[in-house]
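Section 5.1 Outputs to date
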Amino acid sequence: MTGGAGFIGSHIATHLLKQGYQVTVLDDLSGGFRDQVPVGSEFIEGDAGDVELIEKLFQKNRYKFVFHLAAYAAEGLSHFIRRFNYQNNLLASMTLINAAIRHEVKAFVFTSSIAVYGRNQLPMTEELEPHPEDPYGIAKYAVELDLQAAHELFGLPFIVFRPHNVYGRHQNLGDPYRNVVGIFMNQIMQEKPLTVFGDGTQTRAFSHIDDVAPHIARSIEIPECQNQVFNIGADVPVSVNDLATAVMTAMGKTAPLNHLPARNEVQHAFADHGKVRKTFGISGE
């Protein structure tokens, strides 16, 4: 697993261990933390794009499954770090896909993003044609396309998940560029105003980690998941203004909102999860 010291990855690694799998976590700790790697897994500090390291690990361990979560997930910032974005989020993925093909893994599980949809119809469904609008979304969709091509040409089985706005334990509260729940919490603890871009009426469906990670981990045990793409996360969209109020209420603190100029971003984004519910037997309640 790549990114297993990070937020979502550490939770998925924990669930895989509970399911009885041996887990190797590869993480360069650029966004994750060593103490978040679950006890019982093997930890390797390194870069997912390091060709020699990846080949060495695959030859030594003969992995049956690959969970790829390593990414620099600062979507809004990706416009200004294009080369860094593609090197970390796209080229490193190709290194892993090449190794997975050569070593005939049983499934390559990739965590993509709702960002691949861009300004699309709502609710966003897996049948829609993606139109990513930022380098982060473009890189994610490019990996999805490459996995499809690798499956068609080499028979590499894949499973793609498109989570969105995930929050919960292990989120990085110190990251100023991603995870607005964490950003708000950090600002409240520092007694600073909460930063809101635009008027705050933009909406997202904020998803708790426990509604995402267990299903991603279990996907390798469900044959119907093979070579499929799934939206996964919460259904109900919430405005950023209402989110700020909810975070303040949960923390028992109040803070003023600091409205900055609006960013060039999708105004409303939420997804339909009928496909993942049907395949995984998840209740809609």
